[in-house]
Amino acid sequence: MAEKVAGRVERRNAGDNTSAATSEAFERSVIGSGIAVREIVKSYGAFRAADQVSLEIEPGEFITLLGPSGSGKTTLLNLIAGFQKPDDGEILVDGKAIQDVPTHKRGFGMVFQSYALFPNMTVTQNVAFPLRMAGVDRATAERRVAETLDMMRLSEHAAKSPSQMSGGQQQRVAIARAIVLRPKVVLMDEPLSALDRRLRESIQIEIRQLHRTLGSTILFVTHDQGEALTMSDRIAVMDAGKIVQVGTPTEIYRHPKDRFVASFVGESNLIEAEVVQKRGTTMTLKNRAGYVFSAESRDAIDVGRASVLVRPERIAISDVPTANSIPAVVTSALFLGEILRVEVRMEGGETLLIRCTDRTGRPLPSVGDLLHVSWGAEDCWVLS
Ligand code: ATP
């Protein structure tokens, strides 16, 4: 990602092409803005919805705020959008403080869960609206609308009214309207949560492609961890008004900072164990029943006891003991097509969830079967 960001910075130095509604402003791609959120506080009465939040968003980055309901995602997005004012802290866009800049002068594109299209206007008129407001000349506006409808695969619906379109199509119109001015920043608050799963997945891919084509910085809010993992360059995980971890999808999934992130992002097995040896970031641990295994950690954590994460798909099962395997009894086994979902109780009492691929010729495990479970040190992560 460093390379990508460096590339963007280089392009930015070559010239700002989005500041005015001129024909050059309508180049197909823009250079996204960098956003710095510094120690932002926002309270509602005694309740802190944003509690000293800091976040650096790189120019052109696709960053997602992910967290449970009430964790402060929309509050942070609204503060960046200018719908709300922070009680403390500052927000910088390309190095300039924007707290006192009204929303409409920030020049951000915005997409919300509700499509908020003008019902009495056609698709073309909806998408052309921001261009009209910006005083863009007619010929340029027509070209830009056609280009944007094409980008969002909406050209054939240009003359329809919103009521003649499906939810997914309406949301694509809302996205088209948000990007028609080629904003340097696009804010999206749960834009797909009203759509069914298949549609969500196809629009997720479209938004990703759009981001690549457009080059804008995108700040995306979701409570859906799968959506965040699929779409983002980086994810900022929020809990109780704070950002608890920022990282790439693989960092967040493989190396979560704590139990909250481990449990919120993906399915997780948390095993209680005692650290018996540390060598750099590799640890040797002993579980409750005295079985010894190795795990990785960010730093050599100085604790006697630790919670250790093993993802369900990283656990191997065998009918016979293998190196460092732990005996376990099957408590449930489900055939889900390409994978098996198996729950086992390890010696010592802890339950593990396992997801493994179905293998032709291997009988399905049955409740009560004795298996032997194991995992590699690199698939086992000590939580701080
Ligand atoms: P969701 O996924 O449910 O939208 P969220 O993570 O976006 O949740 P926010 O909408 O930012 O969460 O809300 C954070 C907290 O602040 C919540 O507890 C909410 O009840 C509270 N809150 C938000 N807006 C207000 C308001 N205007 N007045 C009082 N409390 C508010």
UniProtKB/TrEMBL annotation:
Reactions mediated catalytically: ATP + H2O + polyamine-[polyamine-binding protein]Side 1 = ADP + phosphate + polyamineSide 2 + [polyamine-binding protein]Side 1
Entry similarity comment: Belongs to the ABC transporter superfamily. Spermidine/putrescine importer (TC 3.A.1.11.1) family.
InterPro entries reported for this sequence: AAA+_ATPase (IPR003593), ABC_SmlMolc_Importer (IPR050093), ABC_transporter-like_ATP-bd (IPR003439), ABC_transporter-like_CS (IPR017871), Mo/tungstate-bd_C_term_dom (IPR008995), P-loop_NTPase (IPR027417), PotA-like (IPR005893), PotA_ATP-bd (IPR017879)
Residue segments, region Disordered: 1-23
Species the sequence originates in: Mesorhizobium australicum
GO molecular function, a single term: ATP hydrolysis activity
Record's keyword annotation contains Membrane: yes
SMART domains documented for this protein: AAA (SM00382)
UniProt name for this protein: Spermidine/putrescine import ATP-binding protein PotA
Top-level taxonomic group: Bacteria
EC number: 7.6.2.11
Entry's Gene Ontology BP terms: quaternary ammonium group transport
Gene coding for it: potA
Coiled coil start-end: none
PANTHER family xrefs: SPERMIDINE/PUTRESCINE IMPORT ATP-BINDING PROTEIN POTA (PTHR42781), SPERMIDINE_PUTRESCINE IMPORT ATP-BINDING PROTEIN POTA (PTHR42781:SF4)
Residue ranges of domain ABC transporter in the record: 35-265
Chain's role: Part of the ABC transporter complex PotABCD involved in spermidine/putrescine import. Responsible for energy coupling to the transport system.
UniProt subunit comment: The complex is composed of two ATP-binding proteins (PotA), two transmembrane proteins (PotB and PotC) and a solute-binding protein (PotD).
GO annotations of cellular component type: ATP-binding cassette (ABC) transporter complex
Top-level EC class as recorded in UniProt: translocase
UniProt entry keywords in alphabetical sequence: ATP-binding, Cell membrane, Membrane, Nucleotide-binding, Translocase, Transport
Extent of Basic and acidic residues compositional bias: 1-14
Ranges annotated as spanning the membrane: none
